[in-house]
Inverse folding.
RNA sequence: CGGGGUGUAGCGUAGCCCGGUUAUCGCGCGUCGUUUGGGACGACGAGGUCGCAGGUUCGAAUCCUGCCACCCCGACCA
């Protein structure tokens, strides 16, 4: 029978895992905390990747690749960054295995193959990249350097969840070098904007752009910009970050350049990244109790066609009748799957495409054929309607756009309903467990931030960039505040 | 890493407390036939290191110890 999905209201966390299972996106691997991304899940990631890659190229970046291993001495050069990541680093200490004389057929680490210097498996690549940039940069004429890499990184997390936090994950990391502070800040903001545009226009996921507080900032950054999204349980998910690194890495790796006046100066840096965590964000933004819901722009299959027939001749007739419609759709760049698998009944296929979030399903059987009609079902609202085969292609093209817009609107409405201004800490404490974003005044101190975190588990997600500059008093201490910040529980 | 829970065929499970033949059932899988408008039905069939490793016992899925994995809650995490 049907694979069951735990309802969101019963157990949101279980629902999330069920969606990944029924939609066949990923599964746990034999390595603790690591996942296998399955073909359908990877197809979605590839769509994300292809679009972002295009946007990076359009903003002047080039791809390159740096090694997965970072010599420990390089890794520790930028102290804050190294400290920040030290607790979650995998370290390579040996380079060879040998037969274990005490356990025939088994292998053991060859003690004679100990590395003279340990290699850190990158949790991020600033160190190896800045040690390389040092060799590339002599003059302002060598700047800016605008590079991105698609890579895997490893962070030895204590507690993992598929896509949201895994020990190894896929991401892109942009690393840029600039001659001036202003230019680096501009780059940092530009890429955060690229992320916001991408998540909103392609993932149909509204985000709030903001700045991280010092305690939430990337280790080694002077400023961290972020995009924060609200999941359906009201919790916040950091979907992307863009860091202004100041001259921290330039100083740590001694990367100087000669400016136009011939003086030596340290290079200004940025780094920015999004990861397979976006897959988790995508799932938790749109999906429902029936399965995954995908925005058309990221759906590996846009339209699934389910023919209903008894005889092979009827199947052929259906194929013949739909040929021009399918050709027309494909010519418009729409991915169509005509499912003529005779081992599955239509009902099974309906449920399957629903679980996988295919935006539009077409069904056509003898009755439709006779009337020249076809049934169109949209995944986002579950609505079905019957239209003429002739109008089908145009209808579907328009419908896909409508679904894309509707998903974004629905997510935005949800967020607006669950975001509120709040001025009383008592009020805040009584409401925070219900989820949602809270716009509150904050006195700007790490102490207050920590107190709220200890007492409520909520953190400051960001200082919204477009927040009105409203004077007020900190909801906790009553000290003066220049703008409201977003408090929420986060993933 | 601390507390709790779970682990029996690809998936979900019964059996475990109270040890005793060939380990239960459903889904899925294979063959054949009938079917096909919301996860079809019948017949036959295949599929198991009972998470792993020790121990107790004449005998262990069942009792004991250790370990591993996953889930939940903490801690931790840009």
């Amino acid at each position: 029978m049907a694979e069951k999905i735990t309802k969101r209201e019963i157990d949101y966390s279980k629902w999330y895992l069920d969606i990944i299972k029924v939609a066949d996106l990923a599964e746990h691997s034999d390595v603790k905390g690591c996942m296998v991304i399955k073909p359908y899940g990877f197809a979605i990631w590839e769509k994300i990747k292809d679009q972002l890659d295009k946007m990076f190229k359009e903003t002047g970046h080039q791809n390159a690749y740096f090694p997965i291993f970072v010599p420990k001495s390089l890794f520790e050069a930028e102290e804050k960054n190294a400290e920040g990541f030290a607790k979650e680093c995998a370290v390579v200490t040996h380079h060879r295995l040998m037969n274990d004389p005490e356990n025939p057929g088994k292998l053991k680490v060859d003690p004679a193959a100990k590395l003279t210097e340990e290699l850190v498996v990158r949790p991020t690549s600033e160190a190896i990249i800045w040690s390389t940039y040092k060799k590339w940069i002599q003059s302002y004429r060598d700047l800016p350097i605008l590079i991105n890499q698609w890579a895997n990184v490893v962070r030895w997390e204590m507690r993992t969840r598929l896509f949201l936090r895994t020990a190894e994950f896929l991401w892109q990391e942009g690393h840029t070098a600039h001659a001036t502070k202003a230019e680096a800040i501009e780059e940092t903001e530009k890429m955060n904007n690229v992320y916001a545009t991408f998540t909103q226009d392609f993932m149909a996921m509204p985000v709030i752009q903001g700045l991280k507080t010092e305690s939430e900032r990337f280790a080694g950054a002077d400023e961290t910009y972020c995009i924060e999204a609200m999941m359906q349980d009201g919790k916040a998910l950091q979907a992307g970050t863009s860091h202004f690194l100041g001259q921290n890495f330039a100083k740590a790796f001694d990367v100087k350049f000669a400016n136009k006046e011939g003086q030596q100066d340290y290079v200004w840096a940025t780094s920015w990244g999004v990861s397979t965590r976006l897959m988790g964000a995508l799932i938790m933004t749109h999906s429902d109790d029936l399965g995954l819901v995908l925005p058309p722009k990221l759906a590996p299959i846009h339209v699934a066609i389910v023919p209903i027939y008894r005889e092979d001749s009827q199947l052929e007739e259906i194929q013949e009748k739909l040929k021009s419609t399918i050709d027309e759709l494909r010519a418009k760049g729409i991915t169509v799957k005509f499912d003529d698998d005779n081992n599955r009944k239509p009902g099974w296929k309906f449920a399957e495409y629903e679980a996988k979030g295919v935006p539009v399903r077409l069904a056509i059987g003898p009755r439709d054929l006779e009337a020249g009609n076809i049934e169109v079902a949209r995944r986002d609202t579950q609505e079905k309607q019957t239209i003429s085969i002739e109008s089908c292609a145009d209808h579907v093209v328009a419908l896909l756009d409508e679904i894309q817009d509707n998903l974004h609107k629905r997510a935005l409405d949800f967020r607006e309903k669950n975001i509120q201004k709040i001025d009383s800490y008592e009020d805040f404490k009584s409401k925070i467990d219900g989820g949602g974003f809270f716009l509150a005044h904050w006195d700007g101190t790490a102490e207050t931030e920590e107190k709220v975190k200890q007492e409520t588990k909520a953190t400051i997600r960001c200082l919204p960039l477009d927040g009105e500059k409203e004077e007020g008093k900190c909801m906790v201490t009553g000290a003066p505040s220049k703008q409201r910040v977003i408090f929420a529980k986060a993933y």
Observations:
- Residues 389-417 of chain A form the longest helix (29 residues).
- The CA atoms of residues 71 and 132 of chain A lie 13 Å apart.
- The radius of gyration of chain A is 26 Å.
- The first strand of chain A starts at residue 26 and ends at 28.
